[in-house]
Queue: 3 jobs
Job 1
Amino acid sequence: MRDSHGLEVTAASQAAVDAFDATIMSYLAFANDIGPRLKDTMTLDPDFVLAHCFKGYLFHLMGAKSLAARAGKELALAQAHAAKVTSRERLHVKALESWCHFDLQGATNAWEAAARDHPLDVLALKMLHYTHFYMGNSHNLRNSVGRVWPAWHDKLPAYGYMLSMRAFGLEETGAYDEALSLATRAYELNPNDAWAVHAVAHVHEIRDQRDAGLAWLERCLTGGGKQWNNFRYHLVWHQALVLHEMERSDQALALYDHAMWDPASDEYLDLANDTSLLLRLEMAGVSVGDRWQVLAEKVKGRKDEHLLAFVDAHFMMPLAAVEPDHAEQLLSSIDAYMDTTDDTYASVSKAVARDLSAAVFAYQTGQFESCVETLEPVRSLVHLVGGSHAQRDVFAEMLIEAAVKAGGLTLARSLLYERVSARPRNFRAWNRLTYVLRQLGDVDGALSAARAAQDVRHKI
Ligand SMILES: [Fe+2]
């Protein structure tokens, strides 16, 4: 059989291939009907190897160990029929096998091989977008799309989704104009493309175009997108981030309560959104009430999962805030894991992530000097934990705040000079710099920074 991009697929019927195609299109759009569509596919062909691979991927993508264990069953089912499938499909089986061993690099290599020979393999490309992102490799986030780009054109069904993937990779590597242009085009082609909405939001965020970012997200979140899955919460998180930047903290907290917080969700991205927004708000002096406690309840049973270093650094935030014993156990668990295991998580932990989690622990337990001593030497490696610039920015802000609170004012000044140099429209950075310069007795510098703060505040 052939799929909608002309790729050979081993399945019982064309109807099963078409149902799988529809499932992948839902996945690309972050739609909320991925599960039912995959179920339809499996009903049409219970031995569909690529569908079993995709189901296994989904279990891993949920970012919870209990679900990752279920991916093993899908791998076994895929392997049972792997002898009859194409070499491309076998690469997907190999990728799932690697992922089941928590070897993200191995999975990435298999998808790269599939994409090299089959540049229209949009599933492999989307998975590469995920692993390059969480392995902190923004160049490959961009280049994995670039390597197949000549094969894509606007008559192909997933072309718009490829545009938004390309846009996000460009944004994360600093090509903001091109990213904005491609993401806007992807959205015009398909307003259901949440990744296009997201890429535009990232361009506005990194450029500190607060009004434009807020207007864009309000338009996209209210105008459509009702069919999006939990990724919708991440878009709301971006919205809350803009409000926070505008010092509209009450509104950011209201968004958290009414449009982000999902008591039923255990998805890692939702928890990362929640924890990082609360930490940002708290660092800005906002009282977050008992919100840490409910988050701590959600994550304290997950201290030994160690699926993504990025996630553990976020799990540390609520635990260290209100359950320091559990937070210490998380640190010990990371130590034990990286000393006894040899997978992607362990290598990232050794390089930086263990220190990052320790720094979060120190900050949240009021040991600001320790936070600075732990984080400052490794801050240039934080990108290795993965995530976007916007997501990792919480750690940059935390180091600045820790330096201020520990009395390391010259370090705080240096970090803030760096920040306003990279982001000259960042109101909060200019504002904080004003405070630090004042504390250091630099009256002229403080006046100048205060003027810059007011200037960028009103220029938005
Ligand atoms: Fe984002």
Note: The radius of gyration is 22 Å.
Job 2
Amino acid sequence: MGLFDKLIKDAVGNAVSEAVKKAVQPKADELAANAVSQAANALNQTANQTAAAAGAANQAAAEGAQAASGTEAPSKEEMQAALGTLGSLLGGFAQRAAENMKLCPKCGEAASADKDFCPSCGAKLPDMTVADGVKCAKCGKQNEPGTRFCSGCGEKLPAAVQAEQAAAEADAEVLKQWAEKLPDFPVWSCGGSDMELEQETGTETESWRFSVTLVTPVAAENAVKQYRQVLMQNGFKTEGQYPDEEHLYKRVNGVSCHVDTEHCFQGDADSPTIYLDHSQPTGGYDYQKPEKKQSGGLLGALFG
Ligand SMILES: [Zn+2]
Ligand SMILES: [Zn+2]
């Protein structure tokens, strides 16, 4: 991380939204043109001097050069003070930006505080500004933008509560869509988050993809197993020439419903993706294993 990035990060907090950083950036760029570059140059100079100190001859040469040029590197204390001032300046800009900014709970874009709806996606914006969202309701401390828990008392901050509510509402909406669009497939209420339901394009039969994030890979694996149970309780079965519980089928009014959990962990181990479509099992629903050939001769006579 560059010195400049680190300054911004220190000033506006670790988890600060990109939006606040964006708002501070122009001001910071302006400052960077002089103060930061000066400080960085000074740091470089010190580093060069330290390297030079490894050899006495080099040291002498460096001192000679410095004396000749007539400049003197600022002391470490001076540089730290300068960087501290810069940091608090950026912190001030970040605070003012946060007071005049709302964040869209849906797309994450920033909007000015007087807006009621997101200019990017049209979603309803919260009443609170970014600064309101990190002001602690319990102890009153004004936290840095992006903070989730109050640094004064540990209370969960309003912005974090609101973000969780928005995420839960979005997940509930996805499950509602599933129930409406795919009524023949039982909804998988697995308790995860970041749910997505997307129709696949370019497939022969209508095909959908559902993904979700669970807390751990183990939880994800258990949730998939549990969904197979739910499917079987709802009449889905292994079918066809290659029966396998990773592919479960059910015929509903003559239409084949197929749930594929075979490749569900090809992404992250805690984010399974399952596939829902209308393909038929290989060999068909009524596939019968061919009977073993009757062996002739003595054994055939004995056991036939
Ligand atoms: Zn938006
Ligand atoms: Zn607090």
Note: The beta strands are 101-103, 110-112, 193-199, 207-213, 247-252, 255-260, 273-277.
Job 3
Amino acid sequence: MVFGLDQLKENTDYFGLDIGTSSIKIAQLKKSFGKFELISFGSAPVESGVSQSDSAIDKKKISEEVKRLVHSMHLVTKNVVVSLPGSSVFTTVIKLPKMPMSELKKAISFQAEQNIPLKITDVRIDWQIIGESPNSGEVSVMIIAAPIIKTKKVADIVEDAGLDIQAVEINALAVSRSLQANEPLYAVVDIGTYTTEITVVQSNVMTLTRSIPVGGQVMTRAIAQDLNIEEAQAEQFKLKFGVDKERMEGKIFKAAKPILKNLTEEIERSIKYYSDQYNQNVTIIKLTGGGSKTIGIQSFIADQLGMNVVYGNPWAMVVHKPDITNQLNQNAPEFAVAVGLAMRGL
Ligand SMILES: Nc1ncnc2c1ncn2[C@@H]1O[C@H](COP(=O)(O)OP(=O)(O)OP(=O)(O)O)[C@@H](O)[C@H]1O
Ligand SMILES: [Mg+2]
């Protein structure tokens, strides 16, 4: 069960809905002969500033946009799986001695109260076992606490759009599902609008996730300020030239550099924390999120960190018609969350 909402039954009739700050993304899949198959996908922009607001008018705007998108995609089902960003939840990892599941559940619930700096009555708790140490006989458990106020906001939006919510989970969990791969250990860096989520995935299990205030819009603002231009113009420059040192006499790169530096330092810090805790080195970074499409950002991160930086492709395991491959690839970074949600329970 995730955040106290009804668990998905045997029901595979649902779609993944990612309500991002810049856009809403939807993906619907089915499982056929053991493989994921694409039914439908689509996205729609969200008016600037609306996602962060808690006003009834702004929530209504998002639910209307969701409704329009669902309608335009001709989706038949009303069942949805949604997610919350990492910035809305609190996560912590605890270690417990191995014990039967019924006792473990009780211990986790007790530990959650001790370890979460929020009033337990104000949050919904979810948890997952992220590792077992054969030597010490301990299990590591990630506890996720989502403020009820946040789960209620997303539930209100979804219900107002005439949809039935099946589960709420967190972005990092969805991404670690859609990017599941053979590599035993990697970090996902999801560069969104105002935030970037860094998630370490080990054996396809999310083991660490944190959120930092860096994103595409943060870069746009820095460019606007440094070049003394409007944000709309800065966004256009960013989309066209990226942060490539060779373009625009390096002016955009120079403007965005402090943000990029901050990003790489935070990635480095997360990876170091992980290796200190788990004694294993992360050597691969997978980029997702619209901000990762910024020209030059992949090579910047790779140069700064001396690591293998690749793009995570959530469509890699999804069977689809060949004529839409290009379209899917163009949108791959943004759809990592929606596809992961769509894969839940299949
Ligand atoms: N081709 C591109 N080049 C550079 N930046 C881009 C490109 N396409 C999208 N972006 C940037 O990506 C950001 C939006 O990414 P994304 O769709 O992943 O965010 P979101 O999921 O809506 O937001 P969040 O996850 O932060 O709530 C915007 O800041 C936008 O400027
Ligand atoms: Mg996002």
Note: Residues 20, 192, 289, 337 surround magnesium ion (ligand 2) (CB under 6 Å).
